[in-house]
Amino acid sequence: MRPVLAHFLQVSGRRALTSLCLFLLLGAITQGIAFALVVPITEDLLTPDAAVPWTWIAVFAAVGLVHAVLHYRSVPMGNDLGADLVTVLHRAVAERAEKLPNRALGAGYSDRLAALDGTAVVVLMGLPAHVLRPAVAAVATPLTVILISAFLDLRVALTLAAGLVLLALCALLVARLLARREEPDGAEWLRRTYERPGAQPSGGLLPAATGEVLLWRVVELAACAAVGVCAALASGDGLSATKGVALVVLSVLTYRPMMEAVLLTSTIMNARGVMATIGKLLGTQEPGGPRDDRPGADWPGRGDIVFDGVSLHVEGTAVLDEVSFTIAEGTTTALVGTPDGTRLLLGDLLTGDVAPTSGEVRVGGVDVGALAPSVVERHVARVSPAAPGLTHEEAARLLDSFPERLADRPGVRDALDRLRAAVAEHAEQKQTEREHTEQKHTERVQAEQKQGEQKQAEASEECGPAGESPAAVPLSEQDRWRLALLRALRSDPSLVVVDATAGVDPFGADPRLAELFTTLTRDRTCWLMTGIGAEVPPGDLVLEARGTGVTVRTAVPN
């Protein structure tokens, strides 16, 4: 779970989590204080002829009010953090799936993507909203009670502390037994079955339900021990009977948060399983845990490209036939000709998405099919305005994280300023739409109150459902190009594949985009697939696809 949560905190920051933990900690402490106040109140109420302890009751009510306010404030914070957790992790999975070569998106990857269903969303959202609160209370509330009870009776405090230490040790032991050996998911289990026939699944040494029952019994034993000590002290000369009863009540209340936390054992194990699936999809693993990616070659030290006798046949039909050429490192090559599919196929062969029927595609002397998918993800940037995720929200995130050291390069500052303007305009538009929707909703409610059921239906049809807003205007094509190019520049790739086959020629129509493209491709190997009839931009080589062959010629300067 740790690498996945670390990825989430790296993207979203720690401020929201820190604020939530602070509210939960204060709530747990006030709960412990309220439990401790039960002792003087119970003792006075059970003592014959004693006055009603209104002062203690007033303090108890005040502490309860503070606890209620903290709980009220922390609930939406937990829900928002849970929604943010789901959004960030699902977006990270989608972005990585977009970057990985097709050969890495096999049945196993599809299986894990399918596992992120509605149940997984509920589990992830429940972590900060419903699991974190009992976990914090199970530690902070008993510690608060133990600290206060030390001033009431040190023997009772030591008994409660011993029970807390025993429960902590048992919880660590059960956690180790539950997670000692990781349970493989469906995709991993199938792979192991094919590789090692007769292999058995190696789950944890305990089912989650068994661990939950064991911990519950330990909590009961600790509570019984504390009650027994209080009863023994009250039966002797150590405590009065009324104070003994009050301390018995306190002992039971002290272990209540632990009981609530124990009931979440299965939920925590389910969350761990979901996090493990997401970790495999993101390529992150627990330290010392098994790696899911197959071994593969690292990116070579040089970037020259060689197509050596590459042929590709689909159902007996030759799509490419004995294609051979060499492209030097750090050059920009334009892919022209018809049809578009052949040029796109050459790009897929280059990135390892498609394996040739015969021949070999090498980068720096290494077969691209031998490169690990994670290596291809890091070193190859695919640039296209049609790529998913090119939204105003993604533009805002890029503006927040774009390295300042790259901002002064040619064309970059202008692209950042234009994206910033588009994001600001979009935010202003959303605010206006929200205000317009609220106004329409108010007018509709007033019309419903005045004009009856018939007018209510007419108003509903005219104004639409409450809270509904018009569809957001997407980024313009030029801004999508800017965002795609800036994302690629930020990732500092070794190889850039630009797909400009759809729409108008972006670089011929906008000199600023052409300047940004030149900045991205400087000192990098770049493939540019232009649209049919588009002007060939400045470069070093031109690959022209004709039928099943490819010809290479030197680019002519404009």
TrEMBL record:
Compartment(s) of residence: Cell membrane
Membrane topology (UniProt): Multi-pass membrane protein
Organism, as annotated: Streptomyces cuspidosporus
Residue numbers spanned by region Disordered: 425-475
Keyword Membrane (UniProt): yes
Highest taxon of source: Bacteria
SUPFAM superfamilies linked to this entry: ABC transporter transmembrane region, P-loop containing nucleoside triphosphate hydrolases
Domain (ABC transmembrane type-1) ranges: 20-181
This protein's name: ABC transmembrane type-1 domain-containing protein
Keyword Transmembrane found: yes
Keyword field: Membrane, Transmembrane, Transmembrane helix
